[in-house]
Amino acid sequence: MLADHDLHTSDVGVQLLSDAFGTQLSLLEKEIEKLAIQLRFLKQKELTKEFILDYVNIDRDYNVYELQDAVGNRNLFKSLQIVDQMSRNFGDNSPVKILSTLFRFFHSLALCKYLKTEQEQEIAKTLHLSSAFLAKNYKPGLRNFSATKIKENLLNIAQADLMIKGITPSKLPQEHTLKQLVYQLIN
Q1: Which domain does 30 fall in, by range?
Q2: Distance (Å, rounded) from C-alpha 93 to C-alpha 91?
Q3: Is 182 in contact with 71 (CB distance < 8 Å)?
C-alpha cells in the first residue's frame, strides 16, 4: 500500500500502523491515502514514527513504544504511569502485545550485547533496522542493562507471559502483573 503512493517507512512505522489498524485493510488504505496527501504537501516521502504519531489517532504518551523507551531509560515512574494508562484500555494495548514488544526489545539488547555492538550503524545492521536513526532507541538500554540483567529480564517477561495467559496461576489482575514486571525489569 505504501509503494502505491511512493512512500516508505521504518519497521517501527509499519508496527505502529499495524497496531493501529490491525486487519482492517480498508481503514489502513484510507489512512495511508490521507497520510500520502499530507506528505506530498510537506514534500516528504517517509512516514516517520513522529509523523505517524502526529497524524494517526495513536496516543503518543501512552503506547507500547513509549513504555519500551521508558524501561530502556530505567525510568520507573514514567514506566508505571504508562502501564497504568494503557491498562485502562487493554483493547488497544493488549498485555500480550506489551509483553511481546518488551521481549523483542530485550532480545535485541541481548543480541547486541553478545555481539558487542555499540555504534548506531552496527546496531542497525545487527537488528536489521531500516536506518541507523532507529538504533538510537536501543542505546540507553545497552548502556543501562548488563548482559546478566538482560537475561534476567527475558526470564521475568516469560514468567509474566505465563501468568497473563493463565498458564501459571496468579490471583493478580493483569494490570498488577504488568506493573510488577516493569518494577522487576528496571530494578
Answers
A1: 3-55
A2: 6
A3: yes
